[in-house]
């Protein structure tokens, strides 16, 4: 027995037990090696006139034998001499394929795709086999040799006599695995089952360029005997047929004109186990220092677990048509976690097991390019297929908003334009840009209301007050909306009509336009404001003055009302500058400071409730008849009645905002007292 070169026992143990995390990939490695062997022969045929081959017969064969408990992977490639067996299999981590690629770099083209590069994939066979034999015959040689090892100490190399049944009649190699005995923790018999082998081939080696064939057991109905009577029952028999398991040609490498939408849809549904057609299909082909192909899909519907912690994002990553990772998370940002697809590149830097990637600039460059492509496709859908985009946004918009919040607003320029919100005035979804383009002259902010129900939001006094001023309000009903807007702070609207500082400048511009000049436009930064915040500054000077005078004249009343509610409940009670008519609501609750009412509600309702309080302000409508009742109770010195009225006004305002009252029982009792 010959000993492995290098510190073989330790290194071989590392190869078998440490490098690979999933033992089933042994078949991927052996099929890839077989593909390399055929590629080497094919390249030789291109450069050597004496090496003529029949391309139609080039194939890889997988043969399970349940009785002998062996699995054989055969190819009709270039084969190996005894010296090459010694060099390639007797030296750990020596890659014959990588050496071949280096020696023939100037001769390879698209027709040849050598996969191997580390020289360790072959040894993955010992994860499932207690003995491995390689029977091989080099192209152009009559000599056939057998390499055998148990993967522990060493190996033997011997010539195979011509009269031995194992002797190969043609060039190529047979890799014969004698499977390990079954144990409690592992059953190796599964690698002898047709179903398992077909599944592994299709999962990892479906796009190897040569046919991967296997004898498949099928069933057929026997012919009816001529003398069979009327009571004859059909009989069935099993038979075997050589079947090509892999599809060979990746759909993402075909020209778009050669693939129908139906074929893309079928590939998507079968590959990603979805019942519905994708909403969008698009491809990406990069050339230059980093070459790769990508076929990407936007699903038609969100998976049920998209927003659960168990959901795994990622694209399928192939290298030279061989599956490396089923979900490569590094190719997508979190906010595009819904995108599905495949990326194939021979240039990515893999680790030695080919199961994971090295973190390199190549990977980052691919991620940035894919992100830009997805953004571009979403923008196109938004602008040209609004109905489809609305459906997409209802499924996946939450993730885009969370992307802005999670990045502390750093991604607002990339994602802000993709957001949709319900317009209270237009009664449809609009983008922030569309909201800005429809603003009346003089509007300086985007106004929104956040809650859990669109119809309730539209009825809120604070929303009605803003609409009454002629300004639209975005009705936001997802819990992430308020946090998204807080992270954005503002939005830069593009190409808005220029706002002139005075009438003279406006008149001059109008005259220029009348003479044929193009209307002047400008980019404008608009602040995002919650209508429940205390700093909207929408009141006219007259309304502000009236509110200030009423507040000053009723200082004692408001102090008594604040005292009745308690210091911890509201920071102040004041006259509302937004509720100014007798038919407006009698009161509303607003918030000062960075924590809005909606943020408080969301945080307090989370799985780990946070004790975060907004600085609440009770605003009273001085024009409402109720205000006169409050004044009368104060003037009469009836503290109990004032406290009752104040409590009811405050709780009513909370309910209108969609916030819970602190003590529902007390609220019900107060209503009864008022009715008594």
From TrEMBL:
Homodimer. CDD domains: HATPase_Hsp90-like (cd16927). NCBIfam families: PRK05218.1. It is found in: Cytoplasm. Molecular chaperone. Has ATPase activity. Gene3D superfamilies: 3.30.230.80, 3.40.50.11260, Heat shock protein 90, C-terminal domain, Histidine kinase-like ATPase, C-terminal domain. The gene is htpG. Residues 541-550 have a biased composition (Basic and acidic residues). Residues 602-676 are annotated as: C. Residues 506-550 are annotated as: Disordered. It comes from Paratractidigestivibacter faecalis. Belongs to the heat shock protein 90 family. Residues 1-354 are annotated as: A. Its main location: cytoplasm. Residues 22-183 form the Histidine kinase/HSP90-like ATPase domain. Keywords: ATP-binding, Chaperone, Cytoplasm, Nucleotide-binding, Stress response. Signal peptide: none annotated. This is Chaperone protein HtpG. InterPro entries: HATPase_C_sf, HATPase_dom, Heat_shock_protein_90_CS, HSP90_C, Hsp90_fam, Hsp90_N, Ribosomal_Su5_D2-typ_SF.
């Amino acid at each position: 027995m010959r000993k492995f070169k290098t510190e073989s026992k330790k290194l071989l143990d590392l190869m078998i037990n440490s490098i690979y995390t999933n033992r089933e990939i042994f078949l991927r490695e052996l099929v890839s090696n077989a593909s390399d062997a055929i590629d080497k022969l094919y390249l030789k045929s291109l450069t050597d006139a004496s090496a003529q081959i029949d391309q139609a017969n080039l194939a890889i064969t997988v043969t399970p034998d349940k009785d002998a408990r062996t699995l054989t992977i055969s190819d009709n490639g270039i084969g190996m001499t005894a010296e090459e067996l010694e060099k390639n299999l007797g030296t750990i981590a020596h890659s014959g394929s990588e050496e071949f690629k280096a020696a023939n770099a100037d001769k390879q083209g698209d027709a040849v795709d050598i996969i191997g590069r580390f020289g360790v994939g072959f040894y993955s066979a010992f994860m499932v086999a207690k003995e491995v034999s390689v029977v091989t015959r080099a192209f152009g040689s009559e000599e056939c040799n057998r390499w055998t090892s148990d993967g522990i100490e060493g190996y033997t190399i011997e010539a195979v006599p011509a009269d031995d049944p194992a002797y190969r009649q043609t060039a190529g190699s047979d890799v014969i695995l004698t499977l390990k005995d079954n144990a409690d923790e592992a059953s190796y018999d599964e690698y002898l089952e047709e179903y398992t082998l077909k599944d592994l081939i299709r999962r990892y080696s479906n796009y190897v360029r040569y046919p991967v064939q296997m004898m498949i057991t099928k069933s057929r109905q026997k012919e009816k005997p001529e003398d069979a009577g009327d009571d004859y029952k059909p009989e069935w028999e099993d038979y075997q047929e050589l079947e090509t398991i892999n599809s060979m040609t990746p759909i993402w490498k075909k020209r778009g004109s050669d693939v129908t939408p139906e074929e893309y849809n079928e590939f998507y549904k079968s590959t990603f186990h979805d019942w519905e057609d994708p909403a969008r299909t698009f491809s990406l082909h990069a050339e230059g220092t980093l070459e790769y192909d990508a076929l990407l899909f936007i699903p038609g519907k969100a998976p049920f677990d998209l927003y659960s912690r168990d959901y795994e994002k990622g694209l399928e990553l192939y290298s030279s048509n061989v599956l490396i990772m089923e979900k490569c998370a590094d190719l997508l940002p979190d906010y595009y976690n819904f995108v599905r697809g495949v990326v194939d590149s021979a240039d990515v830097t893999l680790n030695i097991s080919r199961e994971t990637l090295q973190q390199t600039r190549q990977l980052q460059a691919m991620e940035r390019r894919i992100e830009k492509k997805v953004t571009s496709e979403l923008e196109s859908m938004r602008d040209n297929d609004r109905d489809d985009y609305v459906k997409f946004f209802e499924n996946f918009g939450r993730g885009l908003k969370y992307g802005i919040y999670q990045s502390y607003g750093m991604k607002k320029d990339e994602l802000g334009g993709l957001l949709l919100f319900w317009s209270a005035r237009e009664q449809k979804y609009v983008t922030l840009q569309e909201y800005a383009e429809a603003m009346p002259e003089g509007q300086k902010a985007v106004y929104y209301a956040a809650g859990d129900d669109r119809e309730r939001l539209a009825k809120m006094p604070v929303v009605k007050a803003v609409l009454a001023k002629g300004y639209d309000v975005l009705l936001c009903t997802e819990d992430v909306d308020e946090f998204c807007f807080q992270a954005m702070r503002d939005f830069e609207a593009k190409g808005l009509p220029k706002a002139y500082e005075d009438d003279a400048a406006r008149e001059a511009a109008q005259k220029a336009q009348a003479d044929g000049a193009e209307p002047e436009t400008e980019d404008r930064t608009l602040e995002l404001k919650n209508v429940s915040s205390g700093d909207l500054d929408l009141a006219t000077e007259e309304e502000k003055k009236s509110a200030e005078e009423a507040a000053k004249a009723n200082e004692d009343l408001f102090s008594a009302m604040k005292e009745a509610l308690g210091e911890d409940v509201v920071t102040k009670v004041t006259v509302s500058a937004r509720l100014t008519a007798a038919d407006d609501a009698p009161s509303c609750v607003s918030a000062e400071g960075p924590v809005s009412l909606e943020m408080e509600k969301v945080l307090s309702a989370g799985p780990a409730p946070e004790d975060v309080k907004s600085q609440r302000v009770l605003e009273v409508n001085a024009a409402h008849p109720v205000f006169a009742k409050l004044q009368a109770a104060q003037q009469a010195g009836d503290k109990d009645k004032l406290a009752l009225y104040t409590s009811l006004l405050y709780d009513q305002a909370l309910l209108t905002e969609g916030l819970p009252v602190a003590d529902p029982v007390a609220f019900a009792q107060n209503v009864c007292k008022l009715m008594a």
